[in-house]
Specification:
It contains six helices and no strands. Helix 3 packs across helix 4 and helix 4 packs across helix 6. It is an all-alpha fold.
C-alpha cells in the first residue's frame, strides 16, 4: 500500500481567509493550532495503517478490505487538512519528522504483537482523536453563535469547515467501532497498552499545538 505524503502544504494564491490572520483573539489562534494538530494526527493515522497492513495481512488476510477502507479514509482526511493548512497559511508542526517515525514504529510494533494489539492501537488513537474533533466542533459552534449574537454573518466557509470536521469525526469513530469489533480489548495487557497509546496521543496533541 503506497501513499504520497507531502511534507508541507503547497502555497496557494491570496484570498479571504476563514480565520483572520491579523486577529489576536484566543479563539482564532486556538483554531489555527487545532488545524495543525488535525493534519499531524491524520498523517500519523495514515502511517500507522500503512505500517500495520503488511504484517497483519500475512496472518489475517480477511482484514484486507477493512484495512484498505480505514486507510483510504485517513488518506482523504490528511489531504483535506493539507488543503486547509495551505489555504490559511498555517505551517505544519515542526515535529513532523518525529511523528512520522513514531507513527510508523507504533503501527509496525502493534501489528507484530498481533491482530488484537493492532486493533487496540486503533481504538486508543481514535478515542483521543474523536475527542479532539468533538472539542473543536464545540468551539466552532460557540464561535458561530457568538457571531450571530453580534449580528455578524457566518460565512459558508466556516459552516463548511464544521461540516467537514463532523464528517471526519464520525469516520474516526467508525474506525474505533471496527477496532472494538475486531477484539481490540482482548489484546494482552490491553489496559496498559490503551493507557500508554492514549497518553502518547494527548502528548502529541499538546506539543503539535505549540511547536
Amino acid at each position: 500500500m503506497s501513499l504520497h505524503l507531502p511534507l508541507r502544504p503547497q502555497p496557494v494564491p491570496p484570498h479571504k481567509h476563514l480565520m483572520n490572520m491579523k486577529s489576536p483573539s484566543a479563539a482564532a489562534l486556538s483554531q489555527r493550532n487545532s488545524l495543525r494538530v488535525n493534519q499531524a494526527g491524520e498523517l500519523a493515522a495514515t502511517l500507522i495503517y500503512t505500517a500495520q497492513t503488511p504484517p497483519l495481512l500475512r496472518t489475517h488476510p480477511h482484514l484486507r478490505s477493512l484495512m484498505q477502507h480505514m486507510h483510504a479514509q485517513e488518506a482523504t482526511h490528511f489531504a483535506t487538512f493539507n488543503r486547509l493548512l495551505s489555504r490559511h497559511r498555517i505551517r505544519p508542526t515542526l515535529m513532523y519528522p518525529v511523528w512520522t517515525a513514531a507513527a510508523t514504529a507504533l503501527g509496525w510494533g502493534t501489528a507484530m504483537l498481533g491482530r488484537e494489539a493492532a486493533m487496540a492501537c486503533t481504538e486508543a488513537v481514535e478515542t483521543e482523536i474523536g475527542g479532539h474533533y468533538n472539542g473543536q466542533v464545540r468551539v466552532l459552534l460557540e464561535w458561530m453563535r457568538d457571531m450571530e449574537g453580534r449580528g455578524e454573518e457566518v460565512g459558508e466557509e466556516l459552516r463548511g469547515l464544521v461540516g467537514e470536521l463532523k464528517r471526519i469525526r464520525d469516520e474516526e469513530l467508525e474506525h474505533l467501532d471496527h477496532a472494538v469489533g475486531e477484539d481490540a480489548r482482548e489484546a494482552k495487557g490491553w489496559p496498559v497498552l490503551n493507557a500508554v497509546i492514549r497518553g502518547g496521543c494527548r502528548g502529541a496533541i499538546w506539543v503539535s499545538e505549540r511547536v
